[in-house]
Amino acid sequence: MSLSSAPHWRSVPVDAIVWREWNDEFVVRNERSGSTHLLGPLAGEVLRVLLDAAEGLSVADIAACLDDGPKAASDSGLPAAIEEVLSEFKRLGLAESEPKPR
Amino acid sequence: MIVAELPQRELARRLGGIGLRLRTGPVVTRIQSPLTRIIHGVALHYADHLVEDSEGFADFHVRVAPPRSLRRWIGSQVHFHFDGTRPFLPLPADQAFAMLEWGLNWCVSAHCHQFLIVHAATVEKAGFALLLPGDPGAGKSTLCAGLVSRGWRLLSDELTLLELATGHVVPLPRPVSLKNASIDVIRGFSPDAVLGAPVHDTVKGSVAHMKPPTVSVRRAADVARPRWIVLPHFERGAAAQLAPLSKARAFMHLADHAFNYDVHGRPGFELLAQVIGGSDCFEFHYGALDDAVAVFDELARRA
Asked: Could A18 and B249 be called an inter-chain contact, meaning their C-beta atoms sit closer than 8 Å?
């Protein structure tokens, strides 16, 4: 895990999410908001990484996890794309940022 | 007993008095109306439907009738009554049967939460259901009427009832609502189809209802498994084209077109996921019913 001072992100608890994946597209129901969302490949993978994480993750942490997969390999725009996804997750109530670690 | 076995005078007596308990799929509705248009409309469109015992249970109690006040002499209007309330504004008297149909749709979509209810036409062949969700004007009722005129079984024109425990479609075979140009399209495509007289200047334009095929009504207890989800798009002159639609997008489309998806919460999500998971999903553009029927007959043949 990164020790940087960048914000760290957590998803809503795993039991508040129900989802299905078909061919790299995801439908996600957020039990807290009662809303259902359609997520593209990157957003779905980011959510999966956050749900699997035991603690909050920075954008760099998330990018490192995704770099293991073929979708994100050597994509220089990946951190910015993840930032965008996380902002959208915050708006939808799927994730929230934690205070920066000291 | 079915409606056609009731002498017209007895049908009028029940509708004008104690009410006609009419079974449509899993629903029994007690209908009351003194209006000739309702009596003729029920006799024509519901001829094959079961009449339940006059003392038996009814899910809904509805009445279509003119106002009792002096207004009945001023303008020719009718009200739809539901369990003693009037949930809608009155309509011109010539729209009485259409109002009954729209009112019955509302009764089901607003109350039958034992099902997940999707705004879709659904037809069946060989035990497999073809769901046609779509916005008004997309051509779903026209396509539905065309398919049932060529051997597909009508499960529903407007309201597709998905059984929560199984995901199966529970038939609700009622008249098919045709609008505007679709009325003449179906007359030309299926001269044997039984259509009521069109009423004009409704909120949906000109409307005529097509009587559901007898065999569809007789098999109203036979559920069917969803097999295809198809979003129809009618375009004048377009060649018939079936294009794959991703399951996730089809899921969102069904959820958006479900009347009570939010009521069911997580089980509703799981049910739709089951339906989508077991279905092939497409978008379908068409401009001629003959071509459309050929496409879906081929789809059914390969199933």
From this structure: no
∠ CA B50-B56-B59, nearest 5°, is 80
- Residue A25 has its nearest CB partner, among B248, B266, B269, at B248
Q: Positive or negative CA dihedral for B168, B163, B2, B185?
A: negative
**Pairwise CB contact (< 8 Å): B249 & A20:** no
Beta sheet of B199-202, edge-to-edge order: B176-179, B205-210, B199-202
Residue B297 to residue B299: CA distance in whole angstroms: 5
Distance CA B117, CA B114 (A): 9
Complex ipTM value: 0.88
Those residues of chain B whose CB sits closer than 8 Å to some CB in chain A are 246-249, 251-252, 255, 261-262, 265-266, 269-270, 273, 276-277
Selecting from A23, A31, A38 the residue whose C-beta is nearest the C-beta of B252 gives A38
Tell me the domain boundaries of chain B.
Answer: 3-111, 115-302
Per run of 10 residues, the mean pLDDT along chain B (length 303 residues) is: 97 97 98 97 98 94 86 74 93 96 98 98 97 90 97 97 97 97 95 96 95 98 98 92 98 97 97 98 96 97 92
Which residue in the set B246, B262, B269 is minimally distant from A22, CB to CB?
Answer: B246
Residue type, position B10, single letter: E
